[in-house]
Structures are given as C-alpha cells and as structure tokens.
Amino acid sequence: MIRFVAIFMWPLIAMTAIGAEPKKHALLVGVSTYQKAGLADKPLPFAAPDMELLATALNAVGWETTLLTSQGANSNATRREIVAALDKLLDGVNADDLVLVALSGHGQQFRAKIATDDGASEQEESFFCPSDGKPGEATTLLGMTELTRTLGKHGGGNLILVDACRDDPRRGGKGVDGNTASSIPGNTAVLLRRRADLVRPGSRQVTRGRPARWRRTMPLGKIGRARPWSLDLPTRRTSVRRESFRRRVPPRVATSSKSHPKEQIMIRPRRSSERGHFDFGWLDTYHTFSFGEYHDPRNMSFRALRVMNEDRVAPGGGFPTHGHRDMEIVTLVLSGALEHRDSLGNGEVLRPGELQRMSAGTGIRHSEFNPSPTEPVHLYQIWLMPERVGLAPSYEQRAFPAAEKHNRLRLVASPDAADGSLTIQQDARIYQTTLDAGTDVTHALGSRHAWLQVLRGRVTVNGESLTTGDGAAVSEELGVTVRAEEESEVLLFDMA
After folding, report:
1. Any bridge partners for residue 486, and if so which?
2. Total domain count, the chain
3. I need a labelling partner for 179 at 20 to 30 A (CA). Which of 229, 237, 342, 457 fits?
4. Domain boundary residue among 198, 227, 244?
5. Same domain, 239 and 256
C-alpha cells in the first residue's frame, strides 16, 4: 500500500539514512500571494518561503520533490498546475513508495456539491486556496475530499492535515472565512498544530505571521499504518523559526587573542567526542550536525553548512546508488580512495589532495564505493544548502597541490571559481591549509561568519584549543587566527 500524508506545514525533518527504502516523493505547495478578489489583499508571507525551506530539508535526505509557489508576480501554484503536478507525481510511484503532499496557504470551509463514488452530494467541505482560487467557488479551489479520493485511487492511505491559516495570530486564530481552528474537517487527522498562544506579543514571529512553536495533537502510531520511523516526522516539540536550518549558533565568549586585541571573541566549539557516532561495520561515521539516525536539535546546521560527516568506509564497502536534490556536496579524502559514479555519466576516483564538488540541483543519482579490497578510505563529506533551488545538476573534481596549502590558506571552493577553486552555488568560500607546528594563518571576516574543522592535529583558533575532529562556529568578529600546536590540517568556511 502506498502511504500518503497531506499537511499544510512541517517544521523539522528528522534525517534518514541515504539510500533508505522505500522511495520518497513530495509535492510541496506554498501560496504567499493570490490573484483574485477576496484573497489578493490577504497575503501569507511565510507560506512560500516555508515550503522552499521544507524542500531543501527533504532534498537533503533523499526525497524527490516538486515545489510549486506563488510569490508576487511569480506563480506556478494555480489549481490546474497543482492537479497536474499531483497526477504526474502519482503516475511515477511504486507500491511501496511514500508520498507527501504539503500545502501552505489560505483555506476555506463551506457547504458545496462534492463528487463521491455514488455521484454528487452537498456537504460541508474544506478547501485549500490555490493562487488563482476564488473564495466561495468550489470549482476554483482544491477540496480535501477530492484530494483524498485522488490519493485513494493510487493505493489509499491516510490524510493528515495541519490548518496553518486558521491559527495565523494576525487573524486571532481565524481563517479567511472567519471560522476558528476548531473547524478542522472531520475527515482528517491533525498531526501538528500552530500554537498562536505561544507567540510573544510584539515578537518578530507575530509581525511575519510565523508562530514560534508547534505541538503534536495526535500520536503518529494511531494514524493508520503510519509510524514515526517510516514518515521521518519529529518526535518532540520543536522551534520552526526561519533560523532552524540557517541560524546563528549561540556564541561563547573566549579570551581575545593578540591578533584581535580589541575584539570580544565569539566562538562555539563542537568537540569531536560530542558528535553523533555510528559503526555499521562497513561504515564508521561521525556526524557534526543532525543526520540519519542522529538528531540533536542544538546542532542542526550552521549558516548554510548543513552536513559535516567524517566517514571511514571498509574495503569494498560503500553507498549504493541514491538520489539528491538541491544540495551542494563537497567530498574530501584524507587517506585511501573513493570511487564515484553518477547519472550525469561521471566516473572518477577521488584521492588525497583532490576535492570533489557535486551540485545536486534538480536531481542527481550517484554511488560511492571504496574500490580497494584491502585498505579503508577515510573521508569528509560536506553539504551546504544552495543559494536557490532548481539549479542544473553538475559535477567537478580537482587536485590542489600540497605546496599551495602549506602554511597558507588555499581557496578550494567559492561561488565564482576564484583562483581555480571549485564552484559552489552559495555565498560561501572554503579554504584548506596544512600547518607546521608553531605556524599560524589569519583570515579576515568583517561581518561574516566562519566554521573551522580540524581534519588532523591540534590548533588554537583565536585562543580556543581544538584537536582532531573538533569544529568551531565563529561569529561577530573581524577575523580568526589559526595557530598549529603540532603538524595540522584545517578547513575554514567563510559564510554570509
């Protein structure tokens, strides 16, 4: 049986293992602006951006997503386009696949003539409003009964709804039709609900129309066959502020170094021993940020940096073919070799001294294996969220001579391919350096942020001691100085 979920909003995605079955498909619709009278003067500024954020999160964990949004003059979220996208999505699913339909925008509830298996009858119905929807005209809206029937024809399942509109605090918990949140339609199960009462008066969340918290109102285990581990849904109350995936990490005040005597150094170490750790036999992996089965709400990401995984893959082991979308993936091998093959026709072996960049864009499938029958491969895989979604997928690999990184910061990835670096689709620059004991390098930040990752050795970063596997988030200072206490190798991420 195909399992279906329809929601209006989803705050946080629990990461799943790459390549996990069944396949996962999502249709995400966010309508911030409307075309017709009655809705055109009632924009929902959070709707489209939230769906874009959700798309990025889903793509990062292997979902195949279709995103339709309406913002200003740009709209592909009309009723006709939504129905066509849903039909196309369902035509491509298999019996064991998981399908998610997420709708964010205005809703209405009124009596209307609804088509059923026995003909048509007038009944109370709830509707989602597409960008070209007319309030009160059922044929221009997307009915929940219609959606349920469409899903049912392709295998049945459960419809799970969150009515984001009715708990919009700017309307006192009422939707555009004046009904309160208690009028959630009876043919749906409420999984999550906005809590307008938890929004602080005068807070930014109120003025932007984005409530600060959500809560679960129905246990997942009671919704048909749906289970938390199959749907990848959160299991606790979580914050859904915009900064959930791109937030400033709360800094720690450390002693100023001589390099910046007038600055208050703001740095937050992420110790190697505190990372998520799993040993699957063929794969020994450490996760700096939440990933796969490891979830730490305090360490979801830093700025655009979403994944920092240190992997050791046993001889002959590897990741079978799996898909990614809308993510910048950078891979660095410290020892051994990693063989890469993808759906663009690329086939390369990555070795120490080389860097690989894959822009997943609209979709790419690849595999990664250790080609050696005797030696393990030790690598870092790094994911950055792209500056925008829907880019063309691409791939490149390049060697950077050791002399160019010796006791200096070598730019290895940037948005403009400066100095022969790899091209990443994000306002971020990645530097690599190998330092002799007693040497240091300094990098200016201005108003930007930095992440330091120690690949090997022992260093101080503005006086903060870091060792192999440690990372550190740096914010609100003019620069950083990295000093090697022993022979060391470090990555530095300069980000907006």
Report:
1. none
2. 2
3. 237
4. 244
5. no
